[in-house]
Amino acid sequence: MHQKEIKVNSLDELHGVAKQLLEDLKDERVFAISGKMGAGKTTLIKAFCEVLDVLEVASSPTFALVNEYTRVSDESVFHFDFYRIKKLEEVFDIGYEEYLYSGSYCFMEWPELVTDILPERYVDLNIAVDDNEQRIINYSIRVH
After folding, report:
1. Assigned domain for 119 exists
2. According to a count of CB atoms within 10 Å of the terminal CB, is the N or C end of the chain lower?
3. Is 2 inside a domain boundary?
4. What is the count of structural domains for the chain?
5. CATH number, residue 88
6. Cβ distance 82 to 110 under 8 Å?
7. In a 3-state reduction of DSSP, which class is residue 120?
8. Residues whose CB is less than 8 angstroms from the CB of residue 67 and which lie 6 or more positions away in sequence, other chains included
9. pLDDT given at position 1
10. CB–CB of 126/10 below 8 Å?
11. Which of helix, strand or coil describes residue 33?
C-alpha cells in the first residue's frame, strides 16, 4: 500500500476519519500511531474505539502501558502508550506478544520507542499539525 494522506480541520472530524480508516484497512489489526505531544493520538484512538463499539470510554494508559477495552461483540481492543518506557524490557514484562498477536485491534501511541518489537505487518500512521492547527494524517501498511 502506498502512503495515503487525510487532512483534518478539527478534532471533531476524527470520528469520521477513524471510520474511514477502519473501512480502508479492514484486514489490519495493529496500528502504530506517532505524532508530537498534543497532535491527537489519544483522541484518534478514542474515535477508533467509538467506531468499534467499545463499551468503556477510552483513556490514555500512560502509567499502565496498556488498557484493555471490551467491544459490544465481547472482543478485546488494546491501547498502548509507550511514552514513559525507559527500556524495552518493560514491554517484554507486560507480555506484549500476547496482545499484538492476539488478532484483536491494537492501537499504540509512541511506537517509535519500541520499533524493534513491532510485528512484521502493521499500519504506520503519523499525525502532524500544521500552522493552522490542521491535522495531516499519513498512513501506510508496513511490512518488514
Report:
1. yes
2. C
3. no
4. 1
5. 3.40.50.300
6. yes
7. coil
8. 58, 59, 60, 61, 78, 79
9. 67
10. no
11. strand
What pLDDT is stored for residue 23 in this prediction? 96
**pLDDT tens sequence for the chain (144 residues):** 689 999 999 888 999 999 999 999 999 999 999 999 999 999 999 999 999 999 998 888 767 789 999 999 999 999 999 998 888 888 888 888 999 999 999 999 999 989 989 999 999 999 999 999 899 999 999 997
- Beta-sheet strand order (sheet of 30-35): 4-8, 135-143, 121-129, 30-35, 105-109, 76-81, 66-70
Q: Report pLDDT for 55.
A: 95
Separation in Å, CA 81 to CA 13, 24, 71, 73: 23, 24, 20, 24
The H-or-E segment that residue 68 falls in is strand 66-70
Inside any domain, residue 84: yes
Residue 14 inside a domain? The answer is: no
